[in-house]
Amino acid sequence: MKNKVSRIVEQYPASVFKNRKEHILLVDHDSENPQTITANTRTIPGIITSRGCCYAGCKGVVVGPIKDAVTITHGPIGCGYYSWGTRRNKARLDEGEEDNFLNYCFSTDLQEGDIVFGGEKKLKQAITEVVDIFKPKNIMICSTCPVGLIGDDINAVASWAEDKYNIKVLAFSCEGYKGVTQSAGHHIANNQLIKHVVGTGDAVVGKYSINFLGEYNIGGDSWEIERVLTKIGYEIVSVMTGNGSIEKIKNAHKANLNLVQCYRSINYIADMVHSKYGTDWLKVNFIGVQSSIESLRDLARYFDDPALTARTEEVIAEELAEVLPIIEQYKPLCEGKTAALYVGGSRALHYQYLFKDLGMETILAGFEFAHRDDYEGSEVIPFMKEDADSKNIENLHPEPDEQHYRVVLSKEKYEELKTKIPLNYFGGMIKAMPNQSVVIDDINHYEIDEFMKLLKPDIFCAGIKEKYQIHKMGIFSKQLHSYDYTGPYAGFKGAATFARDIAMGLTTPVWNMVQPPWKVEPMLEGNYVKEVV
Amino acid sequence: MLDSTPQEYSIRKGIVINPAKTCQPIGAMYAALGIHKCLPHSHGSQGCCSYHRMHLARHFRDPVMASTSSFTEGAAVFGGGSNLKTAIKNIFAIYNPDIIAVHTTCLSETIGDDIPVYINQSKVPEGKIVIHANTPSYVGSHVTGFSNMVKGMVKYLSVNKNKPNEKVNIIPGFVNPGDMREIKRILKSMCVKFIMFPDTSGVLDAPLTGKYDMYPAGGSKIEDIIDAGNSDATFALGSFASAAAADELRKKAKVRPVILRTPIGVEATDKFLMSVSRTTGREISAEIEEERGQLIDIMVDLHDQYQGKTAAIFGDPDVVIALTAFTLELGMVPKYVLTGTPGEAFEREVGQMLKDAGVEAKVKAAGDLFTLHQWIKDEPVDLLMGTTYGKYIARAEDIPLVRVGFPVLDRGVHSYMPIVGYKGAMRLIEMISNTLLDRQDRDAKDEDLELLM
């Protein structure tokens, strides 16, 4: 296998080969030393990568779902346009809420003159008009590539607008060229939220109060998980950022625990809230039945209340009674099949658990914009080196907040729990994968083509850019960014929906029609002619 | 839905809300995909390339391959020359296209990267070609980008070798592969020899065979685009998307340009066919004349289903201009006509058309869907015609939407089916009629539900 994998990258020109071979490994759990992989480094120019940019990570992923802010994309029209309604981060007005601007797209639509003479004037004008028409309580400004180059000071404009209109205005300098992927944008978004939003609210919260971090409510995922959490008795103070709001994120420092679903996009906030307010974070995974059960039990262990633990088991039993029969119905159609996953910064790991529930093994998985710790686990962080690209993104080290810092668990209790649950710790992808499976960072078009031929998975889960390439091969591809417009896939009910959709994709009758019958059946027919005597 | 949109219209100078256009590079990428064995290359941050590929893949539901210079902060400061040269080397080594079509982005334009210089400094293998177009995102729209890339094809490739090929050039404009196929079918039925470029049919509507081919069978052949310099005339369909390339062919190769409307509806198709027929001496075929007669038959039979109905039409200028003319042919009232693409010519052409028809309407170029929505809130229409983005207004105001143009992200099959030619007109009537009748059925009281309509 190792040789076959090597042969794929050996086809590359020398410099590309040297680079790409460090991004691929065959999982070997018997290896003496922990396996290492290269990640979060520059994409090689010319490679057909699926990676996006810093703006996509900041506006598209982290701040885009915040519903009670008008998010103005400062730049030419494209960036705002492409990130309008394309991610399926759902939102609705909950009780007492007034603003949901998610069906709107706001852009300063910079023109040539603005690029030459500067765009600040137009940005101010845009804010004035937005305030006039929408009267929002919050505005967010997201920069695109040219804005940084022409030197527009969006922070100064934000302060000007805050003073002038007495509203909250956040500026995100998330120019597309920063960093090496969307990941830089996550970090920039996290920084601004912790600096300007978290800690500014004064809500009174209960004992079992939690924040749900790194959950973007794609297809309604967050709502399905929240349903179960509230049924057990947890109070959700804020979600970052699915169906999220500035109004709620303000109070995030009040919650007693942070749950982290997508580690990559939100780990900065989890860590900074930990050091600033003392709140621990727990790595959870609500994708998959067994992993959801485990996450709920880990959560109960943290609060360690017999009544809460009992209620947790009750709810798990209720949910299972509802969804297991549905999953069992579809499982025979999926069992024994193999999957390959290439998604963002956490789903390529999370969905392996859901496939396990369906009896399917993941034989290849990779992230698009991960760092080494997403593959190797939190323990590798002290050994990760900063490079020129990551150094450009501000690294905040907040001091404990004098007023709000507190310790939820005693030191002994904390140390004891840490051995049992992933507390302030993420194990990464490699440990979770079967021996001899392929882990590949930032897999590109050529490698997808080659690995499909080599491994022949029954399903390849990725995004829209890969989907149709896979379909042309006669293999089913499920989008795991947008879920192909269905879902939710999270939690118990989500798992049942996923089982249905995967079974449907694997067995849809058309797969038997790919080859025209005349290509496989003999077409020459002999005719009897009168025997010539 | 869109509850924050006030009815009262106010002039905006700073903010665009719910745009009806996007940026140049995606149009350039789409045009470049219409050359056989071409890899479009985006010279900028990798996010641009990613967004464009996503959006095109969503519209066509087919693979959209393109590479990127993957700028970092360093490249943004020191220039993207090294990135582009590395990219060109890697692309030919790994993906082996016959041609790379480079387009710029707002990033590389703002720092002033000189693409022709970089291409000259690149190692381009023998027999391979690199072309480029400047597509600054802060000028025009995606239609401008399409136009610029098609013009770039002519600039780099087309040559007048003084060997007339007795062909005509067809620049189909920013339309679907289904439309390009239909135009080709019509021309073939007239036995017209032609060169169509770009041609995304067979590329973005390629068949599923179980074998993935990075460069599907379709697309204009490079030698044909070169030979376009020897043609008798260039038919540029849609002035916004196609006139610039036709004009470039005139300047560079003395090929006579004929700039026509996108052939949507009766008159625009009539004019296209007559113009081609007069230039080539080929008769309009009986098959096509029969289709015209069928279309007229349909228009007589069904006129009462849509005549007098008011419509708001929005999208890209060439398609919107032609669609507006067609709705007038149907006796409809195009009350609001809007494009996101800037251009006074749009307002002039549509304005004149509506004036001639005696229809009072609002017409706007460089507009956005927020404005359109406010107009509709002020005075509603019976039907929306435009891209998927109209569905928010459709829901907010409970007005049915006929999906036409680019992009359509929430329905399938559209990219395979034409809206051009007489067949395309029949399809449009079917969509318009059915949409209005579905609404009538939905709203009818039990006693008013009609079996016969």
What does this structure look like?
The complex is a heterodimer of chains A (533) and B (453). By secondary structure, chain A is an alpha/beta fold. Helices cover 43% and strands 12% of the residues of chain A. Chain A is globular, with a radius of gyration of 25 Å. Chain B has 3 domains: 24-139, Nitrogenase molybdenum iron protein domain (Rossmann fold), CATH 3.40.50.1980; 168-284, Nitrogenase molybdenum iron protein domain (Rossmann fold, 3-Layer(aba) Sandwich), CATH 3.40.50; 288-444, Nitrogenase molybdenum iron protein domain (Rossmann fold, 3-Layer(aba) Sandwich). In chain B, 46% of the residues lie in helices and 13% in strands. Chain B is built from 17 helices and 14 strands. Chain B has a 5-stranded parallel β-sheet, sandwiched between helices. In chain B, helix 1 (24-32) crosses helix 7 (142-156), helix 12 (286-306) runs parallel beside helix 17 and helix 13 (317-329) packs parallel to helix 14 (344-357). The model of chain B has no long low-confidence stretch (mean pLDDT 98). Strand 3 of chain A pairs antiparallel with strand 1 of chain B.
Strand content of chain B: 5-15%
Number of helices of chain B: 17
CATH superfamily of the largest domain in chain B: Nitrogenase molybdenum iron protein domain
Give the strand order, joined by hyphens, for the main sheet of chain A: 1-12-11-10-13-14
Provide the structure class of chain B: alpha/beta
* SS elements, strand count of chain A: 14
The coarse silhouette of chain B is globular
Largest interface: A-B, 90 and 81 residues
Distance between the termini of chain B: 32 Å
CATH class of the largest domain in chain B: Alpha Beta
CATH architecture of the largest domain in chain B: 3-Layer(aba) Sandwich
Helix content of chain A: 40-55%
SS content category of chain A = alpha/beta
Low-pLDDT sequence parts of chain A = none
Q: Using only CA atoms, what is the Rg of chain B?
A: 22 Å
Assembly type of the chains comes to heterodimer
Strand order, sheet with most strands of chain B: 12-11-10-13-14
**In the CATH scheme, what's the topology name of one domain in chain A?**
Rossmann fold
Shape of chain A: globular
